[in-house]
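Progress report, Aim 2. The chain analyzed during this reporting quarter is listed below.
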Amino acid sequence: MAELPQIPRSLTDPVPVLAIGILGWIIALVVFTATGDRGGDALATCWSGIAVGAVGFGIFLMQRAASRRGSKTAQRGLD
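Predicted structure tokens for the chain:
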């Protein structure tokens, strides 16, 4: 049975996806602010997306650092 080739690291790293997601929320916030859309839930949704993305990104980075340190409680496979 042939061995499957390894997926390149650049295709499995979630950092660019997380950063682009947060950047998307920032762009949406700028667009809604520039167009003067002060009503509705658009601005609150954008701020919430930025906040949740930033918290999730921070948690991911902490788990990755713990995994690289060799912490017993860290998730595996993040390094």
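The chain is about 65% helix and 0% strand. The chain has a mean pLDDT of 86. These observations will guide the mutagenesis work planned for the next reporting period.
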